[in-house]
Design brief:
five-stranded mixed β-sheet; 5 strands; alpha+beta
Length: 160
């Protein structure tokens, strides 16, 4: 019986180690260039246009500074600030804003997210990753949150 417990212990230790290795915190790299920001925004915009969606696209560098901002005709004015907040949140906390939205939705202790300075708990902010490092983030606003994420991911897909 002790041998069985030892095997189970090492199995769970191995599984835990793999999970931790997969969730190693990302590091910041060099800043997204204006050229790359324009490529990302163009891909995101093309996806939005293909769906006949009007959005605001904001791209920030690793310091959370605005690199690129565009508002499609017909997009609500409030989305200008929301898109920037989504990009800044994803960048500052090294994760998509959907993580915060999901946390708040699950309630309980996760509601503390609402008190984090500079965090917006609405899906649509995604990290821009190049060579395994964060080079900035994109925020999209103007649609339902899941659609904002779809547009943001279409943009980030052009960066390897």
């Amino acid at each position: 019986m002790n041998l069985m417990k030892a095997k189970l212990f090492f199995f769970f230790l191995l599984i835990s180690g793999v999970a931790l290795a997969q969730q190693a915190p990302l590091q910041y790299g060099s800043n997204v260039s204006l050229t790359d920001a324009k490529k990302i925004a163009a891909a995101a915009e093309a996806h939005a246009i293909s769906k006949q969606w009007a959005v605001v696209i904001a791209i920030v560098d690793t310091g959370g500074n605005l690199v690129y901002l565009q508002k499609q005709d017909g997009t609500q004015i409030g989305s200008l600030e929301v898109a920037q907040a989504k990009a800044k949140t994803a960048n500052a906390f090294k994760r998509p804003t959907k993580a915060f939205q999901d946390g708040v939705a699950s309630g309980g202790e996760n509601l503390r997210i609402l008190s984090l300075p500079g965090a917006i708990a609405v899906e649509g902010g995604e990290l821009i990753i190049s060579d395994g490092k964060i080079i900035g983030a994109i925020g999209v606003s103007g649609l339902q949150a899941a659609q904002d994420t779809e547009v943001a991911k279409a943009g980030t897909a052009v960066i390897k």
